[in-house]
Amino acid sequence: MKHTAEDYLLSSVKNALRILRSFSLDEPEKKVTELASSLGLSKSTVSRLLHTLASEGFVTKDPETHKYRLGLTILQLNTVLTSHLEINREAQPILEQLVDDLQETAHLAMLDDQSVIYIHRVESRQPVQALSHIGRRNPLHCTSSGKVLLAHQKDEDIEAYIEQGLTQFTLNTMTDPRVLREALHAIRRQGYAISIEELREGVASIAAPIRDYTGKVSYALSVIGPIHRFHPYDPTVIAKVKRAASEISEKIGYWPSSPPTKQPIP
């Protein structure tokens, strides 16, 4: 089969995007050889694409280490995106109130492929905080927001996630498919998920679903903190997180079939 110039152009664009997506919080800098090996591309191809990306500010090269990292153009695009996400604007005052009440950091998260990605954050004023970042991707089965989002997917999508394997990160990570299925069923029933040291030791979190105008669970609200200070099983914490998620849902157009009733705070 003969390839056209357009085919080669599309292939180059795809590979350039793969290069950009390969950078992460865990690996913010990479050499040409590392990128070529991980992506299955030749070093000459990677070098050519990086040169083009650098000329437009998408990546920068450290002259001493010869490693590449994401450039300021990415930050500019991220600012454009996040400033126009309706949910970020609508949720901001509700998250600020929740953070004031609970004195811990709150996030908004959404499903992206088979990961949870954090799209907004309101930080607490506590001197010691659990490490979190906007744009960070985490697994679904060992985070409170991830479990909330996974619990509201179709059964076949849940099984597809389970079939890829449930990686263990700590002693508390759920790696048994049967246990995870039961947990997801309970999450759908109770309307929230809790994670205690399932992804990282010393960290606890709670999340509740946020529904869009169609009634679909498109986002999750989570609150995260160190376990020595934050206790997500506290009925007061659970009630406040669920109420905040419900208020955000209504802000972005969701209206339950029956008029909402205020949940009493214990």
TrEMBL record:
Q: What are the residue boundaries of the IclR-ED domain, all occurrences included? A: 73-254
Note the SUPFAM superfamilies from the entry. Answer: GAF domain-like, Winged helix' DNA-binding domain
Transcription listed as a keyword: yes
Q: Which Gene3D superfamilies match?
A: 3.30.450.40, Winged helix-like DNA-binding domain superfamily/Winged helix DNA-binding domain
Domain HTH iclR-type residues, every copy: 10-72
Enumerate the UniProt keywords alphabetically.
DNA-binding, Transcription, Transcription regulation
Q: What is this protein called?
A: IclR family transcriptional regulator
Organism encoding this protein: Geobacillus jurassicus
